[in-house]
Q: What sequence folds into this?
């Protein structure tokens, strides 16, 4: 019993348990892999001096699903489902990016109507992506109500996805050569209701709640700034790069899917801190609304898919009656159709930045090599540098504003 | 600034060390060797008119039938000022998979090179921390190499004649 009691001389006991050293003592803190604030499965091992972060190291790969390897065995149209699962907050952008890459390889020209529908869906996806990032940034700073307001709008966007392709999260939207079906009157009505009525109101309310909110602004201004030079060296793209003051947007630099037809602005930040990232994303949502309005008002008539029997599935009723349609249907579904050989890099502006597809085809039914340039994977490297010397609560805010998506990180 | 101008400038500077110029889908592509890759990238990055200041992508490829040059490292550079992209390739023999690191020019190359090492086993000399990034550290092979098929090799019902590669 005697040895379990605290010795009379307590300073001796302290000395036994913990040697007192003059130098600063660092603590190691594991942020993740399953921490609610990381919004995904990845780990940060932080070296802390009290509450300040001295250095950090990330461990990723917890949800690596070997998409690039799987893609080397799949026919082209089956790879779309893999792209869904990368940035799962804006799957349609990934889907369309992949379709456009394959269409570029095949030399298929997509009709204007399909291109406009694609633009509408991609911009809706961008809004959904930014809604998640910005509202969760609010949640991470302790403002929960904004999140609940805007998530209703995200739900409406998901209902539009459902109407257009039948799925909500992993959309597999569109086909190589166009869209799988035309926009239904219900879908158009839902989109119109969203972008003319509910979304602008809610977004304005959201901005009113946050943009000049003293508590929120104090919390994020000058947190995690990054200079334009550093951001470029770290391969930043998308809203995070634009927040640092570089007006690089793939939609403008290399217009795809008729983006050159629309008029919209590229919001640019000033010093690349969390507040700028928040504001750039907010403004981009307004620009997306602008693009969708233009696309809906000028939606061209005509077919919604290219007349490419070899790649685009024939209508189902033809398959039962028409010999040729049956043959093409069989060949496409079984992946019997070879693509031409070639080497392509195609980029689209994803929710987080430049989403690139590097495709090497050797003339077979599946890609010889497919590499995804995933924006999250590339800019997440800068995270330890950005949160050096800040407190743990600021580090959470920085991570949240970078919008690191685990699915995109690991592929 | 056209692809022709870039190609002529690069050839004038590096001569025989750059070859196989082509333009698939308008993207200037050429090949160099590992002795010149860093000086070439640095030259293009600091060139006063070209300014290829953005490393878009760095990845690897395995071409087992390409005798003596089985592995490739592919760089995609982007000149944001001129809005021009180029692609540079370096091929390595499978007996000697060393190539100098690009992290000295762009810190973003860090994880891209780690990923390439992780999947192809290409060794980037001078890299600050060349360890696996997406796969587990205990893994003792490089999974994206072509000798590792996706399908279970013991299965007889899924033959290549019917199911492709």
A:
């Amino acid at each position: 019993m005697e040895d379990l009691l605290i010795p009379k001389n307590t300073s001796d006991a302290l000395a036994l348990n913990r040697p007192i050293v003059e130098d600063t003592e660092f603590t190691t803190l594991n942020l993740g892999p399953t921490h609610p604030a990381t919004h995904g499965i990845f780990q940060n091992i932080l070296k802390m001096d009290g509450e300040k972060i001295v250095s950090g190291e990330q461990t990723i790969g917890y949800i690596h699903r070997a998409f690039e390897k799987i893609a080397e065995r799949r026919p082209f149209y089956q790879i779309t489902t893999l792209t869904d699962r990368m940035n799962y907050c804006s799957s349609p952008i990934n889907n369309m990016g992949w379709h456009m890459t394959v269409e570029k390889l095949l030399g298929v020209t997509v009709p204007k109507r399909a291109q406009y529908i694609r633009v509408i869906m991609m911009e809706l996806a961008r809004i959904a992506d930014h809604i998640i990032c910005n509202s969760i940034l609010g949640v991470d700073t302790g403002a929960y109500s904004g999140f609940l307001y805007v998530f209703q709008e995200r739900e409406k966007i998901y209902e539009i996805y459902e109407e257009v392709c039948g799925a909500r999260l992993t959309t597999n939207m569109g086909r190589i050569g166009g869209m799988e079906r035309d926009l239904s009157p219900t879908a158009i009505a839902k989109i119109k209701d969203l972008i003319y009525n509910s979304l602008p109101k809610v977004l304005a309310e959201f901005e009113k709640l946050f943009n000049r909110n003293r508590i929120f602004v104090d919390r994020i201004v000058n947190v995690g700034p990054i200079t334009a030079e550093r951001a470029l060296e770290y391969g930043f793209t998308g809203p995070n790069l634009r927040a640092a003051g570089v007006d690089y947007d793939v939609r403008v630099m290399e217009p795809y899917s008729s983006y050159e037809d629309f008029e919209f602005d590229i919001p640019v930040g000033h010093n690349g801190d969390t507040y700028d990232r928040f504001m750039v994303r907010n403004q981009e949502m307004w620009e997306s609304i602008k693009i969708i309005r233009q696309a809906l008002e000028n939606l061209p008539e005509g077919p919604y898919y290219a007349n490419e029997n070899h790649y685009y599935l024939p209508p189902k009723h033809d398959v039962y009656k028409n010999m040729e349609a049956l043959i093409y249907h069989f060949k496409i579904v079984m992946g019997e159709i070879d693509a031409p050989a070639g080497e392509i890099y195609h980029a689209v502006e994803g929710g987080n930045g430049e989403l690139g597809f590097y495709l090497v085809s050797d003339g077979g039914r599946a890609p010889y090599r497919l590499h995804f340039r995933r924006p999250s994977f590339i800019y997440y490297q800068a995270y330890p540098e950005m949160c050096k010397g800040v407190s743990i609560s600021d580090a959470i805010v920085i991570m949240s504003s970078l919008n690191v998506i685990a699915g995109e990180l690991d592929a | 600034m056209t692809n022709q101008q870039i190609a002529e400038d690069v050839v004038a500077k590096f001569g025989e060390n750059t070859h196989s110029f082509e333009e698939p889908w308008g993207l200037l592509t050429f090949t160099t060797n590992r002795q010149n890759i860093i000086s070439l990238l640095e030259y293009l990055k600091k060139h006063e008119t070209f300014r290829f200041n953005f490393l878009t992508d760095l990845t690897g490829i395995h071409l087992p039938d390409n005798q003596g040059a089985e592995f490739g490292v592919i760089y995609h550079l982007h000149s944001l000022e001129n809005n021009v992209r180029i692609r540079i390739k370096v091929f390595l023999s499978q007996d000697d998979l060393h190539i100098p690191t690009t992290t000295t020019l762009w810190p973003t190359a860090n994880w891209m090179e780690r990923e390439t090492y992780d999947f192809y086993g290409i060794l980037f000399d001078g890299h600050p921390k060349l360890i696996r990034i997406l796969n587990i550290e205990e893994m003792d092979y490089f999974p994206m190499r072509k000798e590792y098929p996706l399908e279970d090799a013991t299965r007889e019902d899924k033959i290549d004649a019917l199911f492709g590669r």
Remarks:
- The first strand of chain B starts at residue 19 and ends at 22.
- Chain B has one domain: 3-148.
- Chain B touches chain A through 37 residues (CB under 8 Å).
